[in-house]
Amino acid sequence: MSRASCSRGPWGPCVPSVATASGRGCSRLPTNALADHYRDRRPERSLDAAVWLRDRHPSPEDEAIAHEAQRTVSSLLAELPEEQRHVVELRLAGLTSKEIGAVLGKHANAIDQAQYRAMTRLRVLAASAGSVMEGWQ
Questions:
Q1: Tens of pLDDT along 84-98?
Q2: Which CATH number do you get for residue 109?
Q3: What's the CA gap between 80 and 88, in Å, rounded?
Q4: More confident site: 49 or 66
Q5: Which residue blocks in the chain are alpha helix, DSSP H?
């Protein structure tokens, strides 16, 4: 193979290199020089600023804990009487006492009492099952 020779260009001196198949030996130098030029213009930032960045996605550990909590709540809800379970499920769906009452055909006060009884029973069930759910006591 023959050596290619390059003349001095606007990007600086060119070191002769082995010619490529096309006969051009220094074809990457202008590209590299341009990349270096723009890389040097980029402002440097301290890694201390990255401390405030937070990944918006939950970690695998957080996902596993949430899945376990959801399974625990589902199994505890299954042990409630049907009316209490419906009240809690509709409350978790975001309905108010008045709206739940309209769905179930009861007064809002009766819904509040059923919810209180359901939550009391869920606390007892969670404690007897040895649940590790925080904030239930």
A1: 999 999 999 999 999
A2: 1.10.10.10
A3: 10
A4: 66
A5: 29-41, 60-78, 82-92, 97-104, 108-128
14, pLDDT greater than 70: no
Number of Cβ within 10 Å of residue 84's Cβ equals 21
Stretch (H or E) spanning 43: none
Phi, psi (degrees; rounded to nearest 5) at 129: -85, -5
Residue 118 lies inside a defined structural domain of this protein: yes
Q: Minimal CA–CA distance to 103: which of 116, 117, 113, 89? A: 89
In this structure, is the dihedral angle defined by the CA atoms of residues 43, 48, 52 and 56, taken in order, positive or negative? Answer: positive
DSSP, residue by residue, 110-123: HHHHHHHHHHHHHH
Within a 10 A sphere around the Cβ of 76, how many other Cβ atoms?
21
Strand spans (E) along 11-56? 17-18
Please name the residue that has the structure tokens 């990457």.
28
Number of other CB atoms surrounding residue 118 within 10 Å: 21
- Residue 29 inside a domain? The answer is no
pLDDT digits 0-9 by tens, 75-85: 999 999 999 99
Q: What is the pLDDT of residue 137?
A: 46
